[in-house]
Amino acid sequence: MNKKTDIDIVIRYLEDPDNEQHKQQLNDWIQQDTANLDIFLDMKAMWQGDPLPAASAFDTQGQWLQLSTTLDTLPATIAPTPVAAPRNTRVVNIKTRYWWAAAAVLAIGLTWTWLGPGSYKTITTAQNIDSLHLPDGSMVYINTNSTVRYSRTFGKNNRHIKIDKGEAFFDVVKNDGLPFTVDAPDVKVKVLGTAFNVKTAQSGVKVFVQSGKVAFKGKGSGKEVILTPGQEASLARHGNAVDTRFYKKNNNILAWRTRCLTFDDAPLPEVAAALSDFYNVEVNISNQQLNDKKLLATFPNMPLEEVLDIMRKTLQINITYKNNLVEIY
């Protein structure tokens, strides 16, 4: 990050995060290079006052020399315009702004010196599903609109993954000497070798185990629950109580990865929840008398309109779909 324009993009967003133009500029910049997300997260942490790691062997004199060179090359347009009446105030504001930006460059340099050039590799998906082959042989399948990070030293002295948002499925290679851990908001998951799904949302975090065993631990309460195949644990955001339940085989939790929805005499509310999750739409059952209706069907990666048409004919119900809202009545 050596361009002042890049610094300005981040600063403008941090100064006014609700500004849509600033959001778009920041998003475009992050999309240019995945390393930019690491830089932004570091700058955001500093902006919020989070402490940086303690220094070890760091060339302070060399970094300040580089900083001085950067300041010397700032464009002359930073100087005040002679005819401007409030020029003294503007000089202070601009100098303060660029000194802060230069300090941010130095701090980023410090962070990267201590932690390595971007201590995490970041994968972000938009409207696509992606997969990641980790250095230890494990596989990660990443759902849409998700962000996953892993250490650049992954597989050497750690097997640590972070889910900042969204959902991912893990197929983990067993290594008794190096446990596989996943950090999600309010939750830490630890495994030795298994296949499991982690879903984060505004409401909380859910972990579903397909095979093997998983230790699910809430960071707030410290309570640890051992999950076995077919079992799911959930923790509300900022909550302490861990809820668990067992699912039958056809539960559609992993439908986002298999791209197939299967309903085995599933009650209509369960069908509605699965459709909402799979197609990212809102589904509302306005006639509660329909809750007892059950659906027996399989939909292999079919468009939502076709699924709704089959449901309408099979269950003899009324369904409308408009503006991302499905009404069942």
From TrEMBL:
Gene3D superfamilies: 2.60.120.1440, 3.55.50.30
Limits of the FecR protein domain: 123-214
UniProt keyword Signal present: no
This protein's UniProt keywords: Membrane, Transmembrane, Transmembrane helix
Transmembrane stretches, start-end: 98-115
Domain of life: Bacteria
InterPro entries noted in UniProt: FecR, FecR_C, Ferrdict_sens_TM
Protein FecR C-terminal domain mapped to chain residues: 261-326
Keyword Zinc: no
PANTHER family xref list: PERIPLASMIC SIGNAL SENSOR AND SIGMA FACTOR ACTIVATOR FECR-RELATED, PROTEIN FECR
Protein name: FecR domain-containing protein
